[in-house]
């Protein structure tokens, strides 16, 4: 072995451990803002830069130079099933490598309908809404809907109720006679005054017991 080969092997050393059935998963992330000579991967937390360099070289014959890594910490959130049960999801580790040969992502198809992308996105949104994985925009939208419900109820101009998004239903949909009698009056009285008129001695007695 000549001196040049020895120096090259010493400077650019690769791992000698052979892995036939890896227990890890690496995902190539689509990054349209990066140059064709850079690629970003989602790797396990215990993955090092040398592990990714060896993996790309032995599996795909890709030579890499500079590798940058960062760990993204996930936010703290709770769920609907267990309110105020705060937890933090596992962090995610990303690595950006610089390659010798460029790689250009293929263009998106004109329509994702054959792959069912729209249906899959709807299922994900519905699952996130049911299990409490909501974004800040969803929470703001829900809060705005509740605010509109309260305003409409205080004005006394709601007859049919509301749906989950805070929109008023059509007149007569889900409407009861008691609600029409309680809210649907246009006598100019406030909601508190109409509620005081509906109070019975039994209700007053229960309230007295609670205050004592």
From TrEMBL:
<dbReference type="InterPro" id="IPR013025">
    <property type="entry name" value="Ribosomal_uL23-like"/>
</dbReference>
<dbReference type="InterPro" id="IPR012678">
    <property type="entry name" value="Ribosomal_uL23/eL15/eS24_sf"/>
</dbReference>
<dbReference type="GO" id="GO:0032543">
    <property type="term" value="P:mitochondrial translation"/>
</dbReference>
<dbReference type="GO" id="GO:0003735">
    <property type="term" value="F:structural constituent of ribosome"/>
</dbReference>
<keyword id="KW-0689">Ribosomal protein</keyword>
<feature type="region of interest" description="Disordered">
    <location>
        <begin position="164"/>
        <end position="185"/>
    </location>
</feature>
<dbReference type="InterPro" id="IPR012677">
    <property type="entry name" value="Nucleotide-bd_a/b_plait_sf"/>
</dbReference>
<keyword id="KW-0687">Ribonucleoprotein</keyword>
<comment type="similarity">
    <text>Belongs to the universal ribosomal protein uL23 family.</text>
</comment>
<dbReference type="GO" id="GO:0005762">
    <property type="term" value="C:mitochondrial large ribosomal subunit"/>
</dbReference>
<protein>
    <recommendedName>
        <fullName>Large ribosomal subunit protein uL23m</fullName>
    </recommendedName>
</protein>
